[in-house]
Amino acid sequence: MKYTLEVDLHTHTLASDHAYSTIHDYVRLAPSRGIKLFANTDHGPDMEDAPHKWHFVNSLTLPRVADGVGILRGIESNIKDIDGSIDLEEPIRQSLDIILTGFHRPVFAPRSIDENTQAMVKVIESGKVHVVTHPGNNAFPIHIEEVVKTAARENVALEINNSSFLFSRKDSYPNCCKIAELAKKFDAPISVGSDAHNAWDLGKFDKAVALISQYDFPAERIINNTTDSLFNYLKTKGIDIQDQFEW
């Protein structure tokens, strides 16, 4: 299976203190990385190194297209509790195009497999998020089939996170394999994300692509395979913004 993957939905700028690049850096390198559209998804306000909430509200000032590269206004929010609450206030939400969320230790310490599963299922069912980041993280064990079935029913994408196989969460590979296998079986959408913390990693999907290729995962169920697939997915969430992007 050949994938296009011209959209990267998971990137961090130096507004998150442990990342190293600016929006301008990402725009400059995007064409050489085969990326037509990317989302800036710095960490939500409850993370230790997160930008102030005004960072997200003020993302409305970003151009839709800069030097031929599309920019999505996003966030990687944090799951806060077993009820699936996230650190995203309504004024912030109204400024954003796409909402990612995931477990991060400083906000939600790993719990039992049942509690981790409940938290993830609840956040998927909340209708407030579009992508669950690095759900295969072995530090946060989940009942994978239950999560995948919920994601399929709610049409929420589960991320196959390339960075997990390079720098962190390296023991998540078996879980990610199971997620890809079951996502195909139950027709759940996935996102392939670089989780770039510097612009040189934008569009770096090689490890994730190798994984999903083992299962011949259908390209049409990858929400960021093309710009059209991404915009069509957002439309299912009531976010119709494609006409705002003039390439």
Give me a quick take on this structure.
With 247 residues, the protein is α/β, with parallel strands linked by helices. The protein contains eight helices and eight strands. The protein has helices at residues 23-29, 53-57, 90-93, 113-125, 144-154, 173-186, 206-213, 227-236; strands at 7-11, 37-40, 65-66, 69-78, 98-102, 131-132, 157-161, 190-193.
The share of residues in extended strands comes to 5-15%
**The top level CATH class name:** Alpha Beta
Whole-number count of domains: 1
In the CATH hierarchy, the third-tier topology is known as: TIM Barrel
By CATH, the architecture is named Alpha-Beta Barrel
Poorly predicted regions: none
Distance between the termini: 28 Å
- The helix content, as a percent range, equals 25-40%
Strand tally, please?
8
- Rg for CA atoms: 16 Å
Please report the number of helical segments: 8
CATH superfamily (homologous) name: Metal-dependent hydrolases
